[in-house]
Every structure is written in C-alpha cells, then in structure tokens.
Amino acid sequence: MEAKIRGNIGKIITAALIVIFTVGFMIRLNGVAKTELVNRTGQTFETGVVTEILQDNLQEDGSRAGQQTVAVHMTSGEKEGEDLVTTSNSGYLFGAPCEVGMKVVVLQSISGDTVITTVYSIDRSNVIIGFAVLYIAALCLVGGMKGARGALGLIYTFAAILYIYLPLVYLGYSPFWVSVLICIVTTLVTMLLIGGFARKTICATLGTMAGVVIAGAAAAIFSNMTGVTGWNVSDIESLMTLQQVNGIQVGGLLFSGLLISALGAVMDVAMSISSSMQELHDQNPSMTRMELMSAGMRVGRDMMGTDSNTLILAFAGSSLSMLVLDYAYSLPYLQIINSNNIGIAVMQGLSGSFGIVLSVPATVVMAAYIYKLEKKEKTE
User: Which sequence spans correspond to the domains of the chain?
Assistant: First the structure.
C-alpha cells in the first residue's frame, strides 16, 4: 500500500515537473520580438452589436450586392460605449449580412479625430469556444478519467503546436526537426496521461514514433522521385517574404505538417494494438511470443483498413474545392495528375497512410518482445 502511494506521488511529481518545464519553455520562446511585416498603427479589431440597419443591400432575388450601412454599438476598444455608423461588405471572405442584434467584429482605424470602420465578420469567438468546451465535456463524460486525461493531452498538444512549434520555426529552426520534437514530446505526454507509467505506454510510444518516421521517409522518397517539395505550396509568395525577413526554412514546412497530421492516427493505432496485446498477454501469460505477435497482427489488420482511410479522406476532403473546379473545367488527365496541388495532396495522404500501415507490424514486434521479456524477467 505504501509503495503504491509512493508510486502515485512520484507520478504526480513527474507530471508537475513536465508541466512546469513546458510552461517555462513556452514563456521563454514567446518572448521573441516579431518583425513587423505590415504597419497596423492605429488599427484594431473590436467587438460590437448591430443596433440599426440604415441602408440594406438586399436585392429582389434575395441576393446581396454592394454594402450595407449599419449602426453598431461598440463593446470594446477606444470607442467602447459609442454608436458608430459603419459599412458591411457582401463578400464571402469579409463582411457579414448584418441584422439588428447581431454581434460583429469591427475593423477600426483611428488617426487623430478620424475614425474609419468596417464590419470584418460575425463575432464567432463565443461559439467556437463553446463548441470546444462541449467537446471536452463530452469526452470527459463518456470517457471518465481516461477521457479527462485524453482532454489534457489534447490541450497539451494544441499548446505545444502554438507556443513551441510556431516560435521555433519563426526563429529559423528546421520545421522538420521541430515537428519531430513536437511529435516525440506530445506522444510521450499523451501516452503517459492515457496509459500511465506502464509497458503498454512504452510499446505505444515506440510504435507511434516508428509510424511517424516511416511517414516522413515515405514523403521524402516521394518528393525526390516526383520533384514535389515544400516550395510548391500555393502560398509560397507570402512564405518567401518571411524567409527573406526572418530566415524561416520554408521548404520544410510541408513535411513537418505531414508528420503532425499523421501523428494522431498513428498514435491511435499504436495504443490500440499495444493495449490489446497487453490484455491478451495478461489473460493468457503462457502465449508464446509468436502467438502473441499473430494475435496482435490480427488486431492490427482490422484497424489499418479503416485508419488508413482516415488520412486519405482527410486530405481528399480538404482538396474538394480544387477537385470540383478541376472537374467543372474538364481539365486533361495529364494536367491534373501532374499539378503541384494534386501531387502534394497525394503525397500527404499516401505517406501518412504508409506510416499507419507499417506502424502495425512495428508496434506488434516491439510489444511482443517487451511483454514476453517481462515474463522472462519474472521467471528468472
């Protein structure tokens, strides 16, 4: 009993040290001064509520053209509490079809006594935060303590990408190796939260890292054979500005994004197989290593079919707008198959799926060895 209490205290201390170190590292990284790329002096985004539609742009056919003129009661910024007359464009990317009572975000530029405003968009912040809170609540209610730990792992991963990955890349470090660091750290933390300090956690972590490495290697081979690189992305012009100003290694962004996007699916496969094999081993310790490997492969085969579809469908879904345009314009096969956008989507989907599929035998072999090693140590 005392040993168990000491073990729990040790786990809590270890977790606290990891959190303290991570938070300190994040604070230090995010103290970097950013180079100003656009002059935003006097320009802010503020919140407000539409109180009156002074001039509408609704057409007879129900469409909108041009601008609305609306009165907005400002709820933040220098003009908080004041009613401002502003405009709202009918664009798809900016502006909003304003209605009385609608919460909006106002782009506000102040220079002396001159105030220029326009409605930027609907204020969605509360809805986005609300949905995130509901998801975490559902995760905790359905998953219990495991779900709560999974939520903590999700929050940790999100924070690591925002406050570790982005600053390090901005400082000029290799995006590929930074993403490898993020994958290792977030995998360790997530696995420890879900599985605790156990052998199945070690197996799942090793299997995850093997899958991520395989995905990166497959992407590198594909890149060398097809000429598709991180320089072929659609927003390369804006990224080149960052490279010239800050020395950001633009070419590695594509591959680092691939590793991070494949991490979740590979982690799921590795933990499921590792947990299943531990359960089989605990229920029947007399199983030989080969029998345990065969059972693990049967479990893995059932998973790899659906999980490999996860990444293919994710990348296909993100490219649907492009695919619809290609179909509508009846573009020739050779033009479509050799376009950079299609090449990047195929590379991301297939390389990630390679990682998922080959992480199965990697996890099975390592789990079989580690679990049977445990038995051997006990018999000795």
Answer: 46-123, 165-379
Handedness of CA 229, 235, 237, 242 (dihedral sign): negative
Which pTM was predicted? 0.77
CATH 1.10.287 fits 165-379, yes or no: no
Which residue in 132, 135, 136, 116 sits closest to 124, CA to CA? Answer: 132
Closest Cα to residue 152, out of 347, 294, 22, 288? 22
DSSP string, 22-40: HHHHHHHHTTPPPPP-S--
Query: How many whole angstroms separate alpha carbon 326 and alpha carbon 199?
Result: 49
pLDDT band for position 17 (cuts 50, 70, 90): confident
Give the torsion sign (CA, 33, 36, 41, 45).
Answer: negative
Handedness of CA 49, 41, 248, 232 (dihedral sign): positive
Residues near 29 by beta carbon (within 8 Å), at least 6 away in sequence: 163, 164, 167, 168, 171
Q: H or E element: which one contains 51?
A: strand 43-55
CB 270 within 8 A of CB 359: yes
Sign of the CA dihedral with 361 first, then 344, 261, and 224 last: positive
As given in the structure block, the two tokens for residue 347 are 């590379």
In CATH, the architecture of 46-123 is Beta Barrel (2.40)
Selected residue with higher pLDDT from 319 and 126: 126
pLDDT, position 127: 92
Please check whether residue 307 is in contact with residue 356, taking contact to mean a CB–CB distance below 8 angstroms: yes
Closest by Cα among 348, 347, 366, 351 to 300: 366
Question: Phi and psi dihedrals of 48, rounded to 5?
Answer: -160, 175
Residues 180 and 317: beta-carbon distance below 8 Å: no
